[in-house]
Design a protein that fits this description.
Shape of chain A: globular
Oligomer: heterodimer
Strand order of the largest sheet of chain A: 2-1-3-4-5
Order of helices and strands of chain A: HHHHEHEHEHEHEH
Distance between the termini of chain A: 22 Å
Largest sheet of chain A: 5 strands, parallel
Strand content of chain B: 5-15%
Number of helices of chain A: 9
Strand order of the largest sheet of chain B: 7-8-9-10-11-12
Number of helices of chain B: 19
Structural class of chain A: alpha/beta
Number of strands of chain B: 12
Strand content of chain A: 5-15%
């Protein structure tokens, strides 16, 4: 790997926003293959995730990484041309009914997009029917139900039940996520997995989607 | 046992733990926003907007659950208001500390959402926050926080105050004042009713982590986190400028008249600190931006003779050691996702430990599962004094099963005696 590529990856991992975006713009201007740049973005994202899991990065680090990733993806998209960026598949995500929190969900969205998924973000306080309709329309691999309130657990359960009642449960994997979720929540809501942090959440999305 | 004896027994139990002693058994302090509503058959909107229903629901829970203290908290974070009122109307600081549903109706603040208004009638009220202060304005905040909060922020936070001096704004302020009077009276009435049922409530004073004032009320969480990387010096200067206000807030709200102390039967004053950014920050950021000012406020509050009651929201594992810098046995520390066993390992009895089963267990579990959880926690952690905070992640959930909450109380009597 060239020094330039390494510098770029390190700048992202060090959360050096200015340097990272500057290097990225240089690479794009030099007409480098956008696939290689994207590979580097993903490598850096993986390292950020690992650091979080090792307890060396915290939520604020993920938020800053998410912010840099958002800018990087925006800068990178035009280099690919229309529709040329390959997708790993579609994911639907939203905060469940009665809950309007979204900080955690937004970090997950930034990480999933950088990871190559097409993410349909339904927003906050969304009723079960909205998830059901979105599943019919977008045929996602995985559905993420987010929530911070302890009362969100009940809404997650209702949403899973609505997806089942609509006959769609065996077509999608479901993950519940948020600061208050745990194995007890997964069991109670009938989801396939759970996560209470964005980094391990992204890993679980990948696993549920059956992609690397 | 009559109510007065029960009151004394519960108060003695709580005071013993606060004074570093082991009482007859581990006490249970209950906090709830919707549990009482649902238990009594009310919606969220009912208890948020009707103090008679709120009182009715709280007293029903008090009759049926043998907690050692209980608090029905129907307000959301509102420290921006208590700080705005701090110097010009200190007597209103305690009632202005929480944003209530009726206050929101009048002031039309942009931070909060309420059942029956922006949310369905049985949804939990929620503080979402908003960017109120632009990056360029850090210097104005730093120069004079009180003026900046009043003149610049309040009109942006409360739509009803957006045009200071207008008929609408004046009317909103007058109505807000009247509503604060009613709300304060209802709150005081409920505390007295609970006392007559045998439940003590410690006088509570109010402060806040200085950095959380900026994160929660001025820059919004998603921006403050980026500010650490982009504008570190501006953040630090603003935190330093806010710190004296948080000390003053504790002083003003914690001055309990001696006759009131006598009536309540204790000279303990708990100073409430809900921490928010703690979990977000890595140790370096925590020790650079968050802890120095919070430590200073805590030390001053302790020096005033008050007992800080700190909710360490989320996971506080990485920052536990910093608590050793505070005087021993002076802070009640409620840990949410940090395992209380780990707290004991790292801190011993340096803080007054409070923890409890998470709401996932109270919602989805069974009495047997709760019993197992409590047995293990009490056996591992009760030595040296412990308080149980059921539904430790935000208080007992509106969806907690009553039988699981009862199981917490049964377990304390079985495994929590000394």
């Amino acid at each position: 790997m060239t020094d330039e590529r390494e510098d770029f990856i390190n700048a992202l991992v060090d959360l050096d926003e200015t340097k990272c975006i500057e290097l990225l713009k240089k690479r794009i201007a030099a007409k480098e293959d956008p696939k290689i740049i994207l590979d580097d973005v993903r490598k850096a994202t993986d390292i950020v995730g690992e650091k979080f899991e090792e307890g060396r990065f915290f939520v604020s680090d993920l938020m800053m990484a998410g912010e840099i990733l958002k800018q990087a993806m925006e800068a990178l998209k035009p280099a690919f041309g229309v529709g040329a960026m390959e997708s790993k598949g579609t994911i639907i995500i939203g905060t469940v009914g009665g809950d309007v929190h979204d900080i955690g969900k937004n970090i997950v969205v930034a990480l999933l997009e950088a990871d190559g998924f097409t993410v349909i973000d339904l927003g906050v306080d969304e009723a079960p029917e909205v998830f059901v309709e979105a599943i019919r329309k977008h045929k996602p691999l995985v559905v993420g139900l987010s929530g911070l309130l302890t009362e969100a657990t009940e809404s997650m359960k209702e949403t899973v039940e609505a997806i089942t009642a609509a006959g769609l449960r065996d077509q999608v994997k479901i993950i519940v996520g948020g600061g208050r979720t745990d194995e007890e929540t997964r069991e109670y809501t009938g989801a396939d997995d759970w996560s209470d942090d964005a980094a391990s959440g992204v890993k679980k999305f990948r696993k549920l989607a059956g992609v690397q | 046992m009559d109510a007065a004896e029960m009151y004394r027994e519960k108060l003695d139990r709580l005071e013993a733990v606060i004074h570093g002693k082991e009482p007859d058994r581990v006490p249970v302090t209950a906090m709830m926003t919707l549990f009482h509503a649902h238990y009594a058959g009310y919606t969220a909107q009912d208890v948020m907007f009707d103090s008679v229903k709120n009182r009715d629901a709280a007293l029903k829970v008090a009759r049926d659950f043998d907690f050692d203290s209980m608090l029905a908290l129907t307000g959301l974070e509102g420290t921006f208001m208590s700080l705005a009122l701090l110097h010009s109307a200190p007597s209103l600081v305690p009632t202005g500390r929480f944003m209530e549903g009726h206050f929101h109706e009048i002031l039309k603040d942009v931070y909060t959402k309420w059942p029956g208004m922006e949310l369905a009638e049985d949804s939990h009220p929620q503080f979402i926050g908003k960017e109120i202060m632009k990056v360029e304005e850090y210097k104005d905040l730093t120069e004079n926080p009180g003026e900046f909060l009043n003149r610049v922020c309040l009109p942006r936070i409360c739509k009803a105050l957006s045009d200071p001096g207008s008929p609408e704004s004046n009317a909103a302020l007058a109505l807000f004042g009247a509503e604060m009077g009613k709300s304060g009276a209802a709150m005081g009435g409920l505390v007295q009713d609970l006392a007559q049922c045998g439940f003590p409530t410690f006088p509570m004073s109010f402060s806040y982590a200085p950095l959380d004032v900026i994160g929660d009320f001025l820059r919004d969480i998603k921006n403050i986190v980026l500010d650490f990387y982009r504008y570190p010096d501006d953040v630090k200067r603003a935190v330093d400028a806010l710190t004296p206000l948080l000390i003053e807030s504790a002083r003003v709200t914690g001055a309990v008249p001696p006759e009131m102390q006598k009536a309540i039967g204790t000279n303990v004053v708990e100073c409430f600190f809900p921490l928010h950014l703690n979990e977000y920050l890595n140790p370096k950021l925590y020790e650079e931006f968050y802890w120095p000012s919070l430590k200073k406020v805590l030390e001053e509050v302790i020096a005033m003779g008050q007992t800080p009651y700190v909710l360490f929201e989320g996971r506080h594992d990485a920052h536990l050691e910093t608590l050793l810098e505070l005087p021993k046995g002076k802070v009640i520390a409620v840990f949410d996702k940090t395992d209380p066993r780990k707290v004991r390992d790292v801190l011993g009895d340096h803080v007054i430990l409070s923890s409890g089963p998470p709401n996932s267990l109270l919602i989805g579990g069974t009495p047997q599962k709760v019993d197992d959880y409590m047995k293990s926690m009490l056996e591992d952690c009760k030595e040296g004094g412990l308080m149980i905070y059921p539904g430790v992640d935000g208080g007992i959930s509106g969806d907690a099963k009553p039988e699981n909450v009862q199981a917490v109380l049964k377990a304390v009597k079985k495994y929590g005696t000394y």
